Amino acid sequence: MTPTAIAFAVLGGFVPAIIWLTFWLKEDEHPEPKRLLVVAFISGVLAIPLAFAISWLWENEGLPRLIDITTVNWSNYNLYRLLGFAFAEEYSKYFLVHALIFWRRDYDEPVDAMIYLISTALGFAAVENVLYLADPLINAAPHFEASIVEISILRFIGATPLHALASGVLGYFIASSFFKTYMRKEIALVLGLIAATLLHTVFNLLILIASRPEAGAYAVEGGLLLLSAVGIYILFAFEKVKHRIIS
After folding, report:
1. DSSP track, 167-196
2. In this structure, are residues 113 and 174 in contact, taking their beta carbons and an 8 Å threshold?
3. CA 100, CA 116: separation in Å to the nearest integer?
4. What would you report as the CA-atom Rg of the chain, rounded to the nearest whole angstrom?
5. What sign for the dihedral angle of Cα 120, 121, 122, 125?
6. Distance from C-alpha of 23 to C-alpha of 77, rounded to nearest angstrom
7. Residue 246's pLDDT is what?
8. Do 176 and 110 form a contact (C-beta atoms < 8 A)?
9. Lowest-confidence range among 60-74, 88-102, 154-168, 205-219?
């Protein structure tokens, strides 16, 4: 890989994430300290190896055991696989931002949960984008510049906002329980992780269907429609949460 190729991959991976990050940060009426936003973004980068580790355990330990002890049809293997991988990514993003951000005194209002989780998600998405873009470079694909542009555009409208929106959904659940009891917070966290995992899984499943030769464009359109609907929901969620003082 030449320095030029590496630069193409890094730019193609990080620019979409930074554009989306700039968009979502505008929803915060009381901007968070820039240093913590950087920490949150880096948290997403650090979540990548944790997500890989959890995914590996699910693929090699959890899923085979599930198949062995249930009557799961192998035709459902991909669904169970996608569920496990989606949970691994959503939990990893939450775990890192919880470990590095949520205990700080600057985490002092409900909307902060959404802001920091989305920032973390976009750090995760940036590195994931680079990894996807590295493939045509490593394999010396012809016209790799065109491939990188195409993949970057697809990631910009698909996987990158998916990460932000899934973490935004989880952030909304956490924000809604900001002033609740410990038990209500834990319940909200579990429900938020389930909701984020399901969103992530459904989108990935639609993309998987779209990759099949016999599939029509409806699967891709369905995925984009899903992201658009959730994006509108998150915008309303921000409006509901960011003015909440007591609950």
Report:
1. HHHHHHHHHHTTTS-HHHHHHHHHHHHHHH
2. yes
3. 10
4. 18
5. positive
6. 37
7. 43
8. yes
9. 60-74
> Quick one: pLDDT at residue 8?
75
What is the arithmetic mean of pLDDT over 14-23? 94
Contact 204, 142 (CB under 8 A): no
Task: Spell out the residues 6+ positions from residue 225 whose beta carbon is closer than 8 angstroms to its own.
Answer: none
H/E stretch holding 70: none
- The CA distance from 4 to 7, in Å, is 5
Domain residue spans of the chain: 3-241
What is the C-alpha to C-alpha distance for residues 58 and 147, in angstroms, rounded to an integer? 31
Burial of 157 (0-12, 13-18, 19+ CB in 10 A): middle
Task: Report d(CA 41, CA 234) in Å as an integer.
Answer: 19
* 54: amino acid identity, one letter: I
Mean pLDDT of 3-29: 86
- CA neighbor of 152 nearest in space, from 5, 17, 3, 6: 17
Tokens representing residue 92 in the block: 């990893």
**Alpha-helix runs per DSSP H in the chain:** 3-25, 34-57, 63-69, 77-100, 111-138, 144-157, 159-176, 182-210, 218-241
pLDDT value at position 210?
78
**pTM, whole model, 2 decimals?**
0.90
pLDDT band at 77, cuts 50/70/90? Answer: confident
* The pair of three-digit structure tokens given for residue 98, joined into one six-digit string: 């919880």
72 has pLDDT over 70: no
- Going by the DSSP 8-state scheme, the letter that residue 74 receives in this structure is G
